[in-house]
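The step that takes the researchers longest sounds almost clerical: writing a folded protein down as plain text. Below is the pair of lines this work produces for a single protein:

——
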Amino acid sequence: MENWAHCPPFAAYCPLSGLPRLHGTTSDTIPSKIPYLSADPTRTATWRARLQGLLPPGLCRVGIAWAGRSTHNNDFNRSTSLAALAPLAALDGIALVSLQKGPGQSDVADYFARAPLLNLGTAIGDFEDTMAIIEMLDLVVTVDTSVAHLAGAMGKPVWILLPYAPDWRWLLGRNDSPWYPTARLFRQQSPGDWCGVARQVSDAIRKLSSQQRSHEIMRTDECVGYQ
């Protein structure tokens, strides 16, 4: 309800954020049955064909979103710029897929970096399209915006970049989320330090890629030994 004057008569009310208190919810009892959202199969098939034709083969597909709704009352704190993700864009072996909507899309015009960037722009019509694209990705890296919640609710790997003073739902002093078991949180170590968060993410991707390559080599050695 956008206007309280249009509400029907009521005896009591509770803000949505107050319901956990009334239910006695704790961090150990937060419902986290994942996934509870899934992409439409028809749209997923359409986007699969489209991405296969637009992205270089053999690269890790990383979806990115760097800005939330500009009219949000805390947007200055939670949003950043595409340029702030430079450490991520400098990585080898990945292709970036922009999930960004709104004014932040204009940042793509100034993008010049090693990792190829696919700007889907206005081709993303709604959240159904966004979910279908996420279904095709290996990882989503995003600030605290709707993309983070979609990927988390879908049970997809999502790395969330958080400001020094985050929204209360992300809690403090932890890199996981009781709401989204597949989420990993990367926090600013000082106010406004988005580049530092991006370096944390790029280091984590390098480490993950190294571990995967080592695992593949071990499996190859095992196969050779078996032969």
User: Anything to note?
Assistant: The longest strand covers residues 60-65. The helical segments are 19-22, 41-54, 75-78, 86-89, 127-135, 146-153, 194-226.
